[in-house]
Amino acid sequence: MVDISEDELKILKLQLSRLKLETRLRKDLGSELDRQKTIAVNAENLAKQRGDEIEEISRKLAKYLPEQLYKSIFSGETDVGVKSKRKFLTIFFSDIVSFTQISENMKADLLTEMLNLYLTEMTELVLEHEGTLDKYIGDSIMVFFGDPRTSGKNLDALKCLEMAISMQKRMAVLGVDFVKKYDISDPLKIRIGINSGFCTVGNFGNEKRLDYTVMGRSVNLASRLETAAKPSSILISESTYELVKGDIDLDDAGFFELKGIHNKVKTYEVMP
Amino acid sequence: MKYTGNCLCGNVTFQFPYDPMMQFQCHCTVCQKVFGTSLNAIALPEDELSHEGELDVFSISGGSGKKLHYYFCPQCSIIVYNKPDVLDGMIYLPAGLLADQIEFSPTVELWTKSKAKWLPQAGSIKASFEDNGTVERLVELLENLDQRET
Asked: Do A159 and A211 belong to one domain?
């Protein structure tokens, strides 16, 4: 047996108690770090969950905004404030011929179903041709090309014409389908008007409720051309004609006197 | 014994042989309720404290989510020390219970985000934590272990 003095024994006991304490403190440190790690992981998960929720809300919101504009805002390219700018655009209007009469003879739920089906089909073509869907006004659709992104005046106008042609082709089939499906007397037909020119584009309204849209004489002219267009045709202005004439077959449609426009307007027509 | 002290009625007396491992202030809302203001306390290893006289205990959940146990004299209800599970192995002893062998000079303060506005900053403070600063305190305690007076 080893001889050990009382002092030595005291020191050994002290060392032992220090070691025990150190062990406990290291264990405390470990468990505190674990706890903080758990908090960090939970915070990260929560942040991700919130991010997903925002994305989900944004996706819902996207249905009410022009898709190009939505992408532009959420990627930070376009500011959300009451601002506007002048831009050269090609503007498109369409509506269903005799829609008021048709709607009067249809049940509300069937009318809603038909209109939604029609707007869905047309909107797909808008997106396919990279147009900015401005708004639906009842059965009327307003689209523009050249903002927020532009492929250049000519290509913007060409894309718009190609979209219009594909819409008329689609309607040739859809219009007949609707006769059977919704029991209407004549095939559904649409009229289209297109014009190109400088417009004021931006957010109109106030800070609480903004509408991203285009305004100006060029917009009014597009709308008037649509009203003047024959069923199943596309009526375009001379300024649009100048931008697409080499690429698309167009017929001279003569001069039109249009409401609210001073001079007679030279027009061209596409009958797909 | 180097340090001694007692509760208000004297029913509980205590002693410990070595210098405290930390002198600190806790400004958390629980301490403000329990002690009337911030806690001014010393931290020492649980094993180093010996006491005479019966102690009672009540426990609460601390800010860390772990328990905090208050040991108090059942006669005068004075808290003699508290023991946080988050710092297992350590106890906190209110500085005011000590006899005059020590001039309290806190170097660490905790939960400054709930510190009373009227309370001036002690000149001896070297580290302030908005929260309980547990990790930093544990690291310091572990470093202090090697330099403990024997």
From this structure: yes
